[in-house]
Amino acid sequence: MVKERVRILIVGGGYVGLYTALRLQRRLKKELKSGAIEIVVVSPDPYMTYQPFLPEAAAGSISPRHVVVPLRRVLDLCKVVIGEATAIDHAKRTATLTTLATEEEGAGAEQITYDELVLAPGSIARTLPIPGLAEHGIGFKTVEEAIGLRNHVIEQMDIASSTRDPAIRDAALTFVFVGGGYAGVEALAELEDMARYAARYYHNVKPEDMKWVLVEAAGRILPEVGEEMGRYTVTELRRRNIDVRLETRLESCADRVAVLSDGARFPTRTVVWTAGVKPHPVLAATDLRLNERGRLKCTAELTVEGTEHAWSAGDAAAIPDVTADEPGKECAPNAQHAVRQAKALGDNIVHSLRGEPLETYGHKYAGSVASLGLHKGVAHVYGRKVKGYPAWFMHRVYHLSRVPTFNRKARVLAEWTLSGLFKREIVSLGSLEHPRAEFELAAGGKPSQDPKGSS
Ligand SMILES: Cc1cc2nc3c(=O)[nH]c(=O)nc-3n(C[C@H](O)[C@H](O)[C@H](O)COP(=O)(O)OP(=O)(O)OC[C@H]3O[C@@H](n4cnc5c(N)ncnc54)[C@H](O)[C@@H]3O)c2cc1C
To answer: Is the shortest distance between the CB of 377 and ligand 1 below 6 Å?
Structure first.
């Protein structure tokens, strides 16, 4: 059926990488076992992150290990390489990789050849040249950032509780989030909810002492749930005393003062940046066709335009939305598309290997669910608008059904059940970020500098 020893190289172990590999693993089991086909998955982390659970991980409702899926365990018929592709020469069917070993050996990058390429490095935060942002901004895309932010918020409450300086206290208790998409809104809403709860264990920090600010450049938030539900979310957040500022931009956060375009100034130690994403920069280090926004120009069959044997999907790919009324529209960068595209992509690689015609990818956006903290949510799915507890419940049921593997589903469900029986977890394990500090002190060395600076 296929030529001898075909190597499929998958760059990226996120939604697209994992689901494509799972699909191929299932459909090409015989060939993988016989060695006729080899799948190599290259990913900087040995796990896939289920990003929609990051806000709940930050709030402490799910432990960090359960929002990630170990690649080696689920991709047992694939070869998983922990590293990064730094360049791709598709004309020569060669990728340049750096791995932990290449760094350790100082041998420089290594080259790997392939027959089929799946390029799915996703996206990175879209930042702007705002003074102070690179030094003080906090992202919210990885599990490390989510847990780091949780520890940071609790640490700020500890600082506020113990300082005698009102300026330090005010800055510690001011939390500014920039960007009103689901990442920003859910992260803010979950963390505010967690901090409000945690405040009951502080003798001198009350929920009303904290200032939570959401800054959004457009005139609405949460476009994913539609206009009406977006307006409801603004009302709901304001009811919780969250300062939602629409049509406003962050102009500076230098010297730890967030300056907004409406003239407001907030001394703060927390500026969380969730103002959109842009395609991963590695795409520019390939000889593949990109569109004007830096995404890979793809066909509705999920191949990269203008070449053969190169495939893509997810945040990195500009895939025509064949269900849209107006021509020229692309599928939005979200998990709903990424998962479905990955499955279609896997099927199409199998079709291509077997010389069968390819299928066209088409999926009409079904809407979205978002959590706004424990027992609070908003949803707009298949035309139905839901808010409050039912929306929050829908959010949990939907994501439980979507998180990959039965193992992860069971663990997340167990955690939710336990946190329903016991009180919320409010511990901060910020010291995990500096595990050698105590021993360095004991051994008489100088404790290394806090990488977070003065935060
Ligand atoms: C906080 C948050 C909440 C979200 N909530 C929702 C939601 O509720 N609903 C929804 O539909 N969408 C949601 N999304 C968006 C969704 O997670 C993304 O659209 C989806 O992850 C895109 O999948 P992907 O495979 O393209 O990219 P990713 O899942 O980001 O995977 C890309 C992978 O490639 C790896 N990689 C990067 N560079 C290289 C390289 N050079 N070499 C090798 N590997 C590389 C990365 O480390 C990563 O593992 C959310 C996103 C965030 C950040």
So the answer is: no
